[in-house]
Amino acid sequence: MQTFKKSLVILVLSAGLLSAASTRGAFVITGFDARSAALGGAFVSLAQGPQSAYWNPAGLGLFKGRALTGTYGRMGDFPVFYGYLSLIQGNEGLGGGALTWEYLGAKINGDTPWNEHTLAYAWGYPVNGWLNLGLRVKGLFVDNDLETRSGAKGWGVDASVLLTPVSFLRIGITGWDLASHLSWDTGEKESLTPTYQGGASLLLLKGAYVLVAEVKGEQGDALTDLKVGNEVWLFRTLALRVGLQRKMGEEDTRNIFTAGAGFRVERDGVAYLLNYAFSNDNEVLGPIHRVSMNLEWR
Question: At the fourth CATH level, which superfamily is domain 2-258?
Answer without folding.
Answer: monomeric porin ompg (2.40.160.40)
